[in-house]
Amino acid sequence: MSTKINLGMKVYDFNSGMVTENLPLNNFKVNLLISGGARDERTALLSHVLNQFYARLPDIGVLLIQLGSNEDTYLYHLDKVYEYGAPELNIPYYTGQRFTDLIKERFMNYLNAIFGFHYEMKWVIVNLSLKYKSAGLPSSIVDFLEDLKRCLIKHPYE
Fold first, then answer.
1. Checking phi first, is residue 135 left (phi over 0); if not, alpha (psi -120 to 50) or beta?
2. CA angle in degrees (0–180, nearest 5) for 88-90-93
3. How far is CA 116 from CA 4, 69, 80, 120, in A?
4. Number of CB atoms found within 10 A of residue 21's CB
């Protein structure tokens, strides 16, 4: 069993010397952002990566966050689909450790990667996450995003 995921649709061609990049499975323990390119290219790459996960690591769950159209979901093997705001969608991001600067930085990086926030959003998220250092943390990403939405409505240009 391979310990790598083949990332890309190209295979090795002896004539051209083209090699597909193979990434260790350890690299996929947190997140993978697929963006840019044409929509059909992104869909093909995502299908390719998900199929490899289901074939090689069927006991590992994959959280697919799709912010655009849901027309392509029939192409993926999905165990469960959650709607935004559903009470079952409770994705904890806090591991029970102290909310250190390192954990806060990782959390902000995940949010930026998942949602494609612009660099300027970093300061909004930093300010919003400051209140969680002394007070209780929200129970899920959804709660945090609701707080973020309220913060952006209240302070649109800060």
1. beta
2. 165
3. 26, 16, 24, 11
4. 10
Helix, strand, coil % over all residues of the chain, rounded to 5: 45, 5, 50
Query: Could you say which DSSP state residue 13 is in?
Result: B
Crossing angle (nearest 10°) for helices 141-154 and 121-134: 120
**Tens digit of each residue's pLDDT (9 = 90 or more) over 116-147:** 666 666 677 777 666 665 555 566 667 777 77
- What's this model's pTM, rounded to 2 decimal places? 0.40
Cα–Cα distance, 33 to 115 (Å, whole number): 9
Question: 28: which 2 tokens?
Answer: 């996929």
Tell me the per-residue pLDDT of 104-121, one tens digit each, with 9 for 90 and over: 666 666 666 666 666 666
